[in-house]
Structure formats: C-alpha cells, structure tokens
Amino acid sequence: MRKFIGIFYLVLAVIMTSGAGYMGTLPDIESEFSYLRKESSEKSIAPYSVQELDKKNEQKLKPVPRDDDKYVDIIIKKDKSSQYMNDVNDVILILEKLRKCLNTNQDIQKFNAIVSNLIDNVDYIKTEYEGKPEENYLSYNKLIQISSIARETASFRTRIQRTQPYIPYTSSDNIYTKENLDSKLKNLLNTVNETIFILKNLE
C-alpha cells in the first residue's frame, strides 16, 4: 500500500509540472533591432537614378583628341584593323590642314608642302595594306584618289607659275590659265571634304 501511494504522488507531480515554462516577460526584439533594418534599407537605395548617372557621364565626355598620340595608342591602336584606323587618323589631320589651306588661299609653298606630306602618308598606306583586306575598303580607295588629284593639282599649280611669264595668256595652246587652275583647286577641295567625311565615319 505504501508503495502504491509513492507511485501515485510521483505521477501526480509529473502531471502538475508538465507544460510549465518561463513565466517572466520576454524582451521586445522588434524594437531592439529595428535600427538595423532601417540602415540596411537606406544603404540599398541608389543615390542617383540610371537617367541621372547617364546624364552625369555625358557631361564628363570629352571630344575625341585625334592629335593626341596617347589617345591613338591606347584607345584606337588595339589590333591590326585598328592600326589601319591609326594610319588613317594621321591622314585626316593632313587633309584638314589642306582644306584650311585651300579655303584661305595660302601660298604655293605652303600648299605644296601639305600635298607632299599627304602623298607620303598615302604612299605608306598603299605599301602597308596593298594586297590585304584593307585594300577593298572605300576609305583606302578614296585615299588613293585624293593623293592622285592632289599631286596633279600641285603639279599644275607649279607649272602655271613657271610658264606664265613665257606663254601668252590668250594663246589657244595655253592650258595653264587661272580658270583651269581654279577649276582644279575647286575639284580638289570637294574631294578633300568627301574624303574627310568618309575617313571620320570609319567603323
């Protein structure tokens, strides 16, 4: 009987204590860590929109410095095709000088010096790229054309200066007239403008 009573009290004690837990007050975790969520949210917001960033980048862009060797070496001169663009860039600078010379009617010495520089550069390009894919480019063939026209015009201008004192202006055999020279200079200027446009629009 005593053994039975002991077991009864033991079972009663288990029943009474089962399910019992912490009876105190739990901390407010939500309010304690709310500042962390706020900081994370603030950091995730970009300071500028995509449109604003694009606008800022556009404002920082500078015009292409074609006369800057560092630009040519670093930006343009990357592979074989870029080397062609690098060589073309040199010719563009010469053609722009020639255009200015023609528009301002500079003297024959200045004109012939620029034309000579142009011919040398185009001859280099012809030697370097003849028989290669670049030979089929419109720009390549335009360079050969402008070199030929510039050479012919410079030769004509030199001859007209040398023969003018000796050949009567009204002679029917005289091709070295001011009208013919003006026509050749005008044709050269038009070709220079066309060539510059094509070279500057190389892909």
Would you spell out the secondary-structure blueprint of this structure?
Layout: H1 2-17, H2 29-32, H3 34-43, H4 50-60, H5 69-76, H6 80-103, H7 108-129, H8 138-163, H9 178-200
Helix pairs in contact: 6-7, 6-9, 7-8, 8-9
Brief account:
By secondary structure, the protein is an all-alpha fold.
What does this structure look like?
The protein is mainly α. Helices cover 71% and strands 0% of the residues. It contains 9 helices and no strands. Helix 6 runs antiparallel to helix 7, helix 6 (80-103) runs antiparallel to helix 9 (178-200) and helix 8 (138-163) packs antiparallel against helix 9 (178-200). The longest helix is centred in the last third of the chain and has 26 residues, at 138-163. The chain is elongated and about 50 Å long.
Mean of the pLDDT scores?
75
Q: How many DSSP helices?
A: 9
Uncertain ranges: 18-22, 40-51, 56-61, 74-80
Largest sheet: none
DSSP helix fraction? over 70%
Strand content: under 5%
Q: Radius of gyration from the CA trace?
A: 42 Å
Following the backbone from N to C, one meets helices and strands in this order, namely HHHHHHHHH
CA-CA gap between termini:
108 Å
Number of strands: 0
Q: What sort of overall outline do the alpha carbons produce when their principal axes are compared?
A: elongated
Structural class: mainly alpha
